[in-house]
Each structure stands twice: as C-alpha cells, then as structure tokens.
Amino acid sequence: MSEPASISAGIAARYATAIFEIAQENNGLDDLETGINDLAAAIAESADLRTLLHSPMISRADQGAAIAAIAKKMKLAPVLANALSLMAEKRRLFVVPQLIRALRDLLAEARGEVTAEVVSAKALTKAQSEKLASVLTENVGKTVTINATVDESLIGGLVVKVGSKMIDTSIRSKLNSLQNTMKEVG
Length: 186
Known about the structure:
Elements: H1 3-25, H2 29-45, H3 47-54, H4 60-74, H5 78-89, H6 96-110, E1 113-120, H7 126-140, E2 143-150, E3 158-162, E4 165-168, H8 171-185
Parallel strand pairs: 1-2
Antiparallel strand pairs: 1-3, 3-4
Helix pairs in contact: 1-6, 2-6, 4-5
C-alpha cells in the first residue's frame, strides 16, 4: 500500500471506530448500515458528490454546508451526519470511501461475518459460490460472504483471500512457480 493510501486508511479507520462505537452504544447499527449503503450509492452515482469529497478548491465552509444538506436530505443517522460535518471541518472528506469500507468491515465483524475476495478465471456459478462459501465458513468459523471477480489471466483455478490469508490455486501461479524452479536449475 502506498504511503498516502495507508494514511487515508488510518484516518478512515479512526473515524470508523468512533462512529461504530457511538452507533453501537445507541443501538443504531441498522440505521448506520442503511446510511453508509445510501451514501456509497450516492457517491457511485454522482460525479458532483465525488468532486465535493475530493476537491481542495472547495472551501471548508462550502464543503460543510453541502455535506450537511446532503446528510439531511438523505436522512443519514445523526452519528454519521455529525461525523461527516466534522470531517468537512477538518478537510478529511477525501477519506469517505475508505470510511465506508472500514464501517462495512466493522458491521460485518459485529455480525460474525467475513468477506472473502475470490478471483477466478471464469465467473463462478451460484452453486460453486455457495459451495465455496460453505467450505470457507467451516474453515474460518464465521459466516463468509463471497465477493467474486473474474481475471482471465489466471487461466484456471482460484485466488481466495479471507482477511490476511490468501490461497492461490491458479494455473498462472503454478506456471510462474514452475518457471522460477526451471530458472534455478538451469
């Protein structure tokens, strides 16, 4: 991870932890989850909102007023709305995408869930996804949600990442390993 990205992730993690703990104390985790999902959808759909979050040309006051109006219009949970206003005041709105990711991770952890990032050479069928999720659930001990993507350069097999563990059974990695072994020999 590059240094600016890790700094952003660190900032987002601190805000996410505070927001999550306050929402948890006030029994507002469901409202928080709805709010972050709505906010993520709005960011994905609106170039203007992305500009508001990332542009250094917009003043603190304008960012704060705009984000407060957006939070009110979207009826975001008060803890999330207040945090976004504070982030605008501190010029930290650029970390909102990482904040959303961190909050989703905290919410999933609270529910005893974990997300597995699965990359395959071909799209997984529903049956394959369900079977993989059940096998991973047995091994991890938590409910596993599959986030599947396709990378045809794998040739075949899977790359599965759950938390800090990664299993690479792709043909590409086996060929690379064989190529490295052959270089060592000859």
